[in-house]
Each structure stands twice: as C-alpha cells, then as structure tokens.
C-alpha cells in the first residue's frame, strides 16, 4: 500500500521530529581557541582542581575527550567559569602532551595500569629506617618504575633516630642514587627540610612510599602551612601505617621554586607494564656491553655478554649485580 499518492509534493512528506533536537550531528568539534591553560592539582571523584593564573578552579572532563583522563600534573586547557568561586564548574577540553608518566599496577599479573602522575621530573622514594621496617624490594620496584618512566630517583630515608642508615645505603651505593637522611628532631627543627629542598628546587617531585613512613609529614614541612595535610600513625600490632592521604595532590614549594606531589601510601607497586629491556638504559656504564648479547637477552642468563664486559674491567661488578637485582623484582613480591 502506498503511503503517498502518485504525485506527492513536499507537503505530503511527514518528518518525524528529533527527540534530541533538530540540530544535525557533526564531527566538527569546537577549537576552544579562548581556552585557558592550567595544571591539574588533584582529582576527586570526577572533579579536578586546576590551577589557572594562581586560582584553583573546579573542572570536569569534557565529553569530547572520550576515555582519555587527566591526572595530577597534567597541563590542560579549560573553558567555562574560571572564577574559582564556590559551586562553579569549568570544562577541560584539551590535555597537553606528557613529558613523563609514572604508572603502576596492583600486582605484576594485573594488566590494568594506573597512572600515578604526569610530567614529573623526579621520584622521591620515602622509606622509614624503622617503624615500619624498610622493605628493600619495594625500593627496587620504585627504582625500576623511575628508570622506565625517565624520572630521576631520589632516596629519602626517614626516622634515622630509630635506626642508622648505613646498611640500607650500602645496599644501594653501587646504583649511585642520591639520598637524604632525616630524623624526627631534624624535621621539627627545620635542619632536614633544608637538605631535602636542595634536591627538589626547580623540579616537579612525586613522593611515593608506604603508609606510616613519614611521607606526608615531610611534605607538610616543605610547603606553606595553609596547604598541609592530615598525617597518621603506625599500628603497633601490624607495624603498618594508616592511610590518611586518599588522593594525589600537587603543592607548590615556597617562592614557586618547584612542586611536590604527595601520593597515597601504597601496599604494592606492580610492574606489569615495564619492559625489562628498558631498564638497562639507566646503566650507561653497562649498556655498551649488551651489544654482543644474544637476541632477547634477559641480561641474567649464562650467555649474557655483560659478564665478560665486567670481567674485562669496563664496569664495577656491583653495578651488574644491582642491575640483575632490579630486573628480578618482577619475580619477587615486595616483602621478600
């Protein structure tokens, strides 16, 4: 049966209204040329705080970005209400290219990557010398993550008043990782803060460590009072710290001479995403010795050319041992 006659005209054609509006769909997206640039300070349940011209602005991700998410440290472009007033909301329409990405997985078998921060320059691995006891395998994993991400590692040892740092420093001496040792009394007097600041000036540094190691306490000593965070304590029974920091937060150092990013305490640092072949790049004295290695060499097997390279005196044997210890971290749990 015909819906229209033999000679229908425009008046005979019925057009169903578009329930979502009559504007046709288009793939052309606005350029947002008037967008303001800023840095993501923190992310909390889909709301992001972005610093724009020294004003913290609450924003959300624009739908046009799809599944791409912004994280702390990202440089973003924002449109909308940029006043920073209460109950206002802006939109993030662009995420800038990242210079570095620090990632981790829940464990080595978990393929889901969690981006910790973006665009950091340095990874400060905070470890208590006692209360709770240091976990060298956790330090090794953080070092591998730093080398893989292109970050400069910094070892920060706290609570030296409870136990001396000699044994731990000897373990990492061959790696040449810079370090700072602090005590509770030095933090209170400010003596330790000056030493740590020397390592942070002019850089974006992300602090990582177990709960209870004094990470947030140290961050609070470094930043102005108005930006300080709540700190916790160590459980006397389990020897573990209590989570008081629930999200990463970027804080400016005095005189705008760098940033520190405080992160929640971690129980584990999975390295599922790490390509072991990239770790060798952090050992420039050993890297030339890999030219004669067999294809797909793990650098920890009988035919590895690094053994002969070290035997010939081109590098310190302790450096090769350190490399292989780091490469083996994926086969061991942090507490081993």
Quaternary structure type: single chain
Instruction: Give the strand content.
Output: 15-25%
Low-confidence stretches: 230-243
- Report the count of strand segments: 13
| Helix fraction by DSSP (H/I, runs of at least 4) | 10-25%
Number of helices: 8
- The N- to C-terminal Cα distance equals 79 Å
The major β-sheet equals: 6 strands, mixed
Kindly report the average pLDDT value.
85
Rg, rounded, reads: 26 Å
Return the string of H and E elements.
EEEEEEEEHEHEHHEHEEHHH
Estimate the global geometry from the Cα principal axes: globular
The spatial strand order of the largest sheet comes to 10-9-8-11-13-12
Judged by helices, strands and strand pairing, the structural class is alpha/beta
Would you mind describing this structure in some detail?
Mean pLDDT is 85; it is low at 230-243. This protein has helices at residues 136-149, 166-172, 184-189, 191-200, 215-222, 276-279, 306-311, 317-327; strands at 36-44, 47-52, 55-61, 75-80, 90-95, 101-104, 114-118, 122-128, 152-158, 179-181, 204-208, 249-252, 259-262. It is of the alpha/beta class.
Write the layout of secondary structure elements.
Elements (H helix, E strand, L loop, with lengths): L35 E9 L2 E6 L2 E7 L13 E6 L9 E6 L5 E4 L9 E5 L3 E7 L7 H14 L2 E7 L7 H7 L6 E3 L2 H6 L1 H10 L3 E5 L6 H8 L26 E4 L6 E4 L13 H4 L26 H6 L5 H11 L9
Parallel strand pairs: 3-5, 8-9, 8-11, 9-10, 11-13
Antiparallel strand pairs: 1-2, 1-4, 2-3, 4-5, 6-7, 12-13
């Amino acid at each position: 049966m015909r819906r229209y006659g033999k000679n229908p005209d425009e008046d005979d054609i019925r057009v169903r209204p578009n329930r979502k509006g009559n504007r046709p769909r288009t793939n052309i997206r606005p350029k947002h040329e008037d967008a303001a640039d800023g840095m993501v300070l923190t992310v909390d349940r889909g709301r992001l705080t972005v610093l724009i011209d020294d004003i913290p602005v609450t924003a959300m991700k624009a739908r046009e970005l799809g599944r791409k998410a912004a994280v702390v440290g990202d440089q973003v472009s924002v449109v909308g209400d940029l006043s920073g007033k209460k109950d206002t909301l802006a939109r993030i329409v662009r995420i800038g290219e990242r210079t570095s990405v620090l990632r981790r997985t829940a464990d080595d078998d978990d393929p889901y990557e969690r981006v910790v921060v973006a665009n950091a320059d340095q990874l400060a691995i905070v470890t208590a010398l006692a209360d709770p006891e240091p976990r060298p395998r956790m330090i090794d994993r953080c070092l591998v993550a730093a080398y893989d991400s292109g970050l400069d590692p910094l070892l920060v040892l706290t609570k030296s008043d409870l136990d001396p740092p000699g044994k731990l420093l000897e373990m990492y001496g061959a790696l040449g990782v810079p370090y700072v040792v602090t005590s509770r009394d030095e933090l209170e007097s400010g003596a330790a803060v000056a030493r740590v600041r020397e390592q942070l000036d002019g850089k974006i540094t992300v602090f990582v460590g177990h709960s209870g190691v004094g990470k947030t306490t140290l961050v609070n000593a470094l930043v102005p009072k108005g930006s300080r965070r709540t700190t916790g304590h160590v459980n006397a029974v389990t020897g573990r710290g209590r989570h008081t920091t629930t999200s990463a937060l970027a804080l400016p150092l005095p005189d705008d001479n760098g940033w520190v990013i405080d992160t929640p305490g971690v129980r584990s640092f999975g390295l599922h995403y790490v390509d072991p072949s990239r770790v060798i790049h952090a050992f420039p004295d050993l890297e030339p010795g890999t030219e004669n290695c067999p294809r797909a060499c793990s650098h920890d097997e009988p035919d590895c050319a690094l053994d002969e390279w070290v035997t010939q005196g081109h590098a310190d044997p302790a450096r090769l041992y350190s490399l292989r210890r780091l490469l083996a971290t994926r086969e061991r749990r942090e507490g081993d």
